[in-house]
Amino acid sequence: MTTALLLLDFQNGIAGRFAEAGSDVIAHAGRALSAARSAGIPVVFVRVAFREGFPEAAARNKAFGGIANSPQAPHMTEDAEATQIIAALAPRPAEPVVVKRRYGAFASDLDVVLRGLGATDLVVAGVSTSGAVLSTVREAADRDFGLTVLADACADQDPEVHRVLLEKVFPRQAEVVTVDAWASRLSADGAPRG
Questions:
Q1: Is residue 57 part of a domain?
Q2: 71-99: per-residue pLDDT in tens?
Q3: Which CATH number goes with the domain that contains 117?
Q4: Is 61 inside a domain boundary?
Q5: Considering only Cβ atoms within 10 Å of each terminal Cβ, which end of the chain, N or C, has fewer?
Q6: How many whole angstroms from its chain centre is CA 54?
Q7: Contact indicator for 52, 143 with CB cutoff of 8 Å
Q8: For 55-68, what is each residue's pLDDT tens digit?
Q9: Is 77 within the bounds of a domain?
Q10: Which range, 28-32, 81-85, 100-104, has the best average confidence (pLDDT)?
Q11: What residue numbers bound the domain in which 27 lies?
Q12: Is Cell inner membrane set as a keyword in this record (predicted)?
């Protein structure tokens, strides 16, 4: 059994909003990142971005269809500063950064990366809980991954939606724990696991 830590959408234009609002989600994600690295657990960063001209943004897609003509368009391309991983969680050279084209992390080559790592279990942290985290957890469960969601390393702009997902929805498909609980389990076991 091989576990991988997925850090979803911790990019300047998304996670930065939570930091500005006083959320400590980035600090919690940083502790999860440190724990994973110390335990030898592979880390995969996932960010959302589009090619120049937004060929992936179909007009029929309610969430992304109008992005090419929106004021945020210049900030959503692959090379834009807003789509880069935040400095506080900077990937190391050997840590993959996957670019997705939708909310869920599997709208990318993530599956290929996870197979290359031999991952059977995923530990998920990200922003936002109702977007990237929800979509990724659902897809990962359907693909039969063992799942852990790090509750305090996830955040959403709607606190009630965040609470309902963590307390009522995710426990049907994943273990939901805090970063400290997960990290202490890693320390106690002395071996990488979910």
A1: no
A2: 666 677 788 898 899 999 999 999 999 99
A3: 3.40.50.850
A4: no
A5: N
A6: 22
A7: no
A8: 566 667 656 656 65
A9: no
A10: 28-32
A11: 3-50+85-189
A12: no
Task: Count up the domains in the chain and report the number.
Answer: 1
b vs e for 57-86, b when ≥16 Cβ sit within 10 Å of the residue's Cβ?
Answer: beeeeeebeebeeeeebeebeeebebbbbb
Contacts of 109 (CB under 8 A, 6+ apart): 98
Contact 63, 70 (CB under 8 A): no
The answer to whether 141 and 176 have CB atoms below 8 angstroms apart is no
**Could you tell me how far CA 64 lies from the centroid of its own chain?**
18
Q: How many residues are given for the chain? A: 194
Task: Work out the burial of residue 116: count CB atoms within 10 Å of its CB; fewer than 13 is exposed, 13-18 middle, 19 or more buried.
Answer: exposed
User: Which single residue is written with the structure tokens 């959503």?
Assistant: 76
Q: How far is CA 7 from CA 57, 115, 134, in A?
A: 23, 17, 13
Place of tokens 């990962």: 140
Q: Using alpha carbons, select from 128, 166, 124 the residue that is nearest to residue 145.
A: 124
Tokens (6 digits) for 172: 């049907």
